[in-house]
Amino acid sequence: MKIHSHLLRFMQIKFPLVLTAFAVGFFLACTVISMNLLDSDFGWHVRLGEIIVRQGIVRIDPFSYTMPSYPFIDHEWLSNIIFYVFHKEIGWQGMAILFSVLAVCAVGVIIPWKEKRFVLLPAVFVSTVLVSRFAIRAQVVEWLLFSILMRIVLRREWLRKWRWVLPILMLAWVNLHGSFALGIVVIFLACISYQDVRRIDWVIIWIAICSFLVTFINPYGWSIWHEIWMQASDTSLHFSIVEWGPFWTRPDLAFASMIGLVAAFGWRYRSRLTKMQLLTAGCTFMLSLSAVRHIPLFMISIAPVTVDLLSWANSESRTYPYGEIRFQVLYRILIVFSISVFLIEFLGAIRGAVGFSEQEFYPVEAVVFLRNQQITGHIFAPYAWGGYLDWKLPEQKVFIDGRMPSFRWHAPAGEADSAFSEYRNFVAGVNQQHIIDKYVISYILLPKDNKDISSWRQFIWFSSLSNQVLQSVREGLLAEGWVRVHADARAEIYADR
Questions:
Q1: 314 and 414, same domain (yes or no)
Q2: Claim to verify: residue 134 and residue 119 sit in the same structural domain
């Protein structure tokens, strides 16, 4: 019994220390990744922010020649200004540190620190999912905003104390990121969950209504909701872009482990779970199954629930002989397992980050070459390079970039109904010459086939740029009289002579 007592005391003393060390490690991991990885959307975020600062809110697509009159709704306009200003003032390294702090805060905010012994396991699993998706990107802001929202609404006492914050939070969110719509859904779930059949809580109802109404305070008014619906209803994304693919397209051990943990303990203590916990967990779980980019939201929403489940299990274990000792040993084993998973994911993430650095992935030398040419037509470039060209070659418009997969409309003559559909056709070898003639394309920028082509599957799943596809495109261009005018380690350029 004395040995067991010392073991329990040792575990209780060490957990805060391990948690602090892990938080520092998570911050450093995010910083290292973001200092190497250049997200494909970073460039157009910075350029849009610059345009907004200098010219005002953008109303039509400023970057593409395929949809130049498309009524563009920038649902991240404030984030874009932040990207531009902070990149100008503190540089890439400063932004890497800043976004790493935001990621740590996203985990720290949602964790209920009252149960200090049991916060480490869910914190590690959540951090593992975040670190494997981390970059300097607007989605990190989404994680933090969602974490703040869940912290407020998951417990009735917190909602009563902080409900006045919700309209303010939604006012900021609607101008920072398009996921604000999910925030409204969660607020109305809370409004429903916390109603008493004997007494209606009108304050919460009015807070929910106000939170919804403030989402119309943005440069585009009600149109921003239409834009969110366009993206949410675009099922083609799930078969075109990896981060929008269903959960089975990207196996995630931390995600699977959290599901197993919650399922095992959740079933046993299901009667103690609140309606709000069940509704938000179910909602975010369905989202995570539909698209891997939503998995972090599920992990954030379920983290405080997991702490409750572990606390209840520990309390029950005390009713059995040596039960608490056994539970603590099991918990420690799970901690070791979770940290091991984190390290595996981090090593994979840092290897991928180096592969997606500016020098390793993007057409740096090709951009220098193009800048020195007298280009009379347009440039065709892969989807993954569109945002980079928006940033580094602003004098030229692009065929497509990361904003455009869901752009669709009845276009006027000479423009695309859907640039993404035409892009996939071009890559697949369908109507290539028609597309070239339609947009007066005079230069075609392609990745070299000696690059690890699997990297491109991060961006195009349905029409991945395999070596066979690239070779087919080259042969077709050469047969039509195109000439290779530039080649380097990352890219090659063909010109219409």
A1: no
A2: yes
> Do β-strands 482-487 and 491-496 pair in parallel, antiparallel, or remain unpaired?
antiparallel
Domain boundary among 355, 385, 407: 355
Structure token pair of residue 33 = 């990744």
Q: Are residues 301 and 429 in the same domain?
A: no
Which of 306, 311, 210 has the alpha carbon at shortest distance from 257?
306
Nearest CA to 212 out of 230, 190, 232 is that of: 190
User: What is the number of structural domains in the chain?
Assistant: 2
Beta strand 441-447 with 378-380: parallel, antiparallel or unpaired? parallel
351 and 374 assigned to the same domain:
no
257 and 404 part of one domain:
no
User: DSSP per residue over 244-291, as a string?
Assistant: GS-GGGS--HHHHHHHHHHHHHHHHTGGGS-HHHHHHHHHHHHHHHH-
Main-chain dihedrals φ then ψ at residue 125, nearest 5 degrees: -65, -45
- Strands (DSSP E) along 387-497, which ranges? 441-447, 482-487, 491-496
Residues 6+ apart with CB under 8 A from 459: 40, 241, 242, 382, 383, 384
Residue 27: C-alpha distances to residues 96, 100, 128, 163 (Å) = 10, 6, 12, 30
Q: Are 29 and 346 in contact (CB under 8 A)?
A: yes
User: Could you say which DSSP state residue 441 is in?
Assistant: E
Question: Do 384 and 330 share a structural domain?
Answer: no
- pLDDT, one tens digit per residue, over 178-190 is 999 999 999 999 9
pLDDT number for residue 287:
93
Alpha carbon distance 143, 173 (integer Å)? 11
What's residue 6's pLDDT? 53
225 to 165, 178, 179, 180, 485: CA distances (angstroms):
22, 9, 11, 10, 45
Phi, psi of 368 (to 5 degrees): -60, -45
Q: Which of 149, 151, 191 is nearest to 170 (CA)?
A: 149
Mean pLDDT of 40-55: 96
User: Which residues form the domain of 395?
Assistant: 358-496
User: What token pair was written down for 468?
Assistant: 């066979």
pLDDT of residue 15 exceeding 70, the answer is no
Q: Name the phi and psi angles at 443, rounded to 5.
A: -135, 140
Dist. CA 182–CA 144, nearest whole Å = 13
d(CA 423, CA 99): 32
Top mean pLDDT of 69-78, 154-163, 187-196, 431-440 is at: 69-78
Checking if the pLDDT of 457 tops 50, the result is: no
